[in-house]
Design a protein that fits this description.
The protein has 2 domains: 34-149 and 256-287, no CATH class; 156-240, no CATH class. 68% of the residues lie in helices and 0% in strands. The chain contains 12 helices and no strands. α5 packs antiparallel against α10 (243-254), α6 (156-165) packs across α8 (194-210) and α6 packs across α9 (213-240). It is found in: Nucleus. GO terms for molecular function: DNA binding. InterPro entries: HMG_box_dom, HMG_box_dom_sf, UBF1.
């Protein structure tokens, strides 16, 4: 009974989503101010689009051999076992078909992108830039964690906020302790989750602005001392980290997408309003440089 209710709910949500998509044609789509690759940007809502591309041979195998009536997880497990039983010749057949499909898809996608209005082409460029930047930054963070790179010292305000959140031993402060330090009732006393953090940050920002330079000097001194310590640790890290790891980090940073490579890889005609692409992308690139 419960599973049936879930299926009906999913069907209803799917129908509502389809109605919303049909009710908002692509020609009236406005450029999105947020180009995060996880969000739905206008170019993704267009109705006419080439068929999906397959990233791997196994994805093509799954698409062509669906098992109806089973969940995606169970299908993947069973088809994974079936894929393992195929001979090398049968797997090579799928590899050849995938290569042909990708060639056809690239041509169709290039034709599709070049037929879009200028605003949608611009959104496509920003979408790819944001996605590639996200993936590159994730690799950078992972490699830094693996190699044990020291984190940068917190700024003065973040130290001030952290002092109100936790004791020196790292344990969280109670609501009463927090309000006693804040000197006022907290708006987030009866709030749970991330919104409590937002409310506290606002309260502490107000208090920080009202503090005198002498009161802030304590945190400035802490920040400078911590910065010196982290700088020494960073020098030790640079000396102890293998050269190939440092080179990998350097290459990841300089390959965070540049304007021309993004436009070229997206299949758009060159140039695509270079002034707009440069204005929107340059600050985001600079942000990731050391």
């Amino acid at each position: 009974m419960i599973s049936m209710v879930r299926q009906v709910g999913k069907l209803r949500l799917g129908l509502e989503s389809s109605v919303r998509t049909m009710a908002s044609p692509a020609s009236t789509a406005e450029p999105s101010p947020d180009f995060n690759w996880k969000t739905r940007t206008p170019f993704k809502r267009l109705m006419i689009k080439p068929p999906s591309n397959y990233r791997t041979v196994f994805a093509l195998f799954v698409k062509e051999n669906p098992i109806l009536g089973l969940s995606t997880k169970i299908q993947t497990i069973r088809l994974g076992k079936a894929w393992g039983t195929l001979s090398d010749e049968e797997k090579q057949m799928y590899r050849d078909r995938l290569r042909e499909h990708k060639a056809t898809f690239d041509d169709q996608m290039r034709e599709f992108l070049n037929s879009l209005p200028e605003e949608d082409q611009f959104n496509r460029v920003m979408y790819m830039a944001s996605r590639e930047r996200f993936l590159a930054n994730r690799k950078v963070r992972h490699l830094e964690k693996v190699t044990g790179k020291p984190k940068a010292a917190l700024n003065c305000f973040k130290m001030f906020v952290l002092e109100h959140y936790r004791h020196e031993d790292g344990t969280k402060r109670t609501e009463d302790e927090y309000e006693e330090i804040l000197g006022a009732p907290s708006m987030g006393r009866h709030v749970v989750g991330a919104h409590k953090m937002v409310l506290r940050a606002r309260e502490l920002a107000v208090k920080w602005k009202k503090m005198s330079k002498a009161e802030k000097a304590v945190y400035v001194e802490k920040h400078e001392r911590k910065s010196r310590e982290q700088s020494e640790k960073r020098m030790e890290w640079l000396q102890s980290t293998p050269e190939d790891h440092l080179e990998a980090l350097r290459l990841l940073r300089i390959t965070i997408p540049q304007r021309q490579s993004i436009v070229a890889s997206s299949g758009l005609r060159w140039p695509v309003d270079q002034s707009r692409v440069g204005e929107a992308q340059t600050p985001m690139i600079e942000k990731n440089r050391e």
